[in-house]
Amino acid sequence: MRVLTRSKIIRTAINTVLRRMPHDDRKIVEGFVNRVMSCREWETDGLDNLSVISAAMLPLWTDRTDFSKYDCQIQFNLPVARLFTAKALTNIVAHEFAHVRIAANLGDGWYEKMKSREGYHERIADQLASSWGFPATLHHRERKKQVLPTIYARESQIMRKVSARLAAENEAVKSRFDKMRRY
């Protein structure tokens, strides 16, 4: 498992969870996850909805010709994750590692299998993380009472920044295509 984020709070939370989780589960998680990374910018979920997800376990396609083959990655959304306390963020890491532990048992096609029963797998991941000593109630409560109200209060300001960033990225792509056409 490669940890590709420089975020100190994320790295500390990862180390805490790995140190406290059962040895057998830790080995499975470390062997199944290809990488842990983070996004530093606010992201949208679709065209105009601000993403409020703090972390997600996602497929990492390693073969660009065969999309049925993929590894596992965990991605943190830093603007959202930073709104949680260190303890709640540690519990979020444990929750994501619990998803990984479950996915490892499912084998090939784990992502599709988990998505088809998402609610069930969320509850099982909460239970597994709790059995490791990381109760889900803390980060669920913080998310509802502190994180979401903070994001929604700042949403229009954040979306203006996201729109400006996306417009600048689009202009950069257009510029590259224009240069390619000239050659």
Q: Biggest sheet: strands, sense, closure?
A: 4 strands, mixed
User: Percent range for helical residues?
Assistant: 55-70%
Gross morphology is: globular
Unreliably modeled segments: none
Terminal-residue CA separation: 42 Å
Number of strands: 4
Element order: H for helix, E for strand: EHHEEEHHHHH
Instruction: Write down the overall mean pLDDT.
Output: 91
Q: Please tally the helical runs, counting DSSP H or I stretches of 4 or more residues.
A: 7
Estimate the strand proportion: 5-15%
Radius of gyration of CA atoms, rounded to a whole number = 18 Å
Structural class: alpha/beta
Question: Spatial order of the strands in the main sheet?
Answer: 1-2-4-3
Layout of helices and strands, plus pairs?
Layout (H helix, E strand, L loop, with lengths): L1 E2 L4 H13 L2 H10 E7 L15 E7 L8 E8 H4 L4 H21 L3 H7 L1 H14 L4 H47 L1
Parallel strand pairs: 1-2, 2-4
Antiparallel strand pairs: 3-4
Helix pairs in contact: 1-4, 2-4, 4-5, 4-6, 4-7
